[in-house]
Amino acid sequence: MSRGSAASVALRYAALREAGDVILYDQENPANNEIKQPGADVNYRAEGPTTYEYRPDEKEGIVPGGRAPSRQLDNAPPASSKVIPDSMKQTLAENYVMAARRPGVSKWTAQNKLYEQLRDIEYGSAKVIRQVGSEWLISYRTNAGDPRQVLVGGREDRSGHVSLSVRRKASAVKVAARIGEIMGKCGPEIQKRSKGIQYRRTRILPEKGMMTFDVRGSSGEVYKVRIKGVRKDRRIKALDKMPVKVSCSCKYFRWQGPEHWAKSNGYLYGRPVGTASKPNVKDPKGQHWLCKHLYAILNEKRNIRFASGGWRFTGPYRPDYLMG
Question: Is residue 11 a part of any domain in this protein?
Answer without folding.
Answer: no
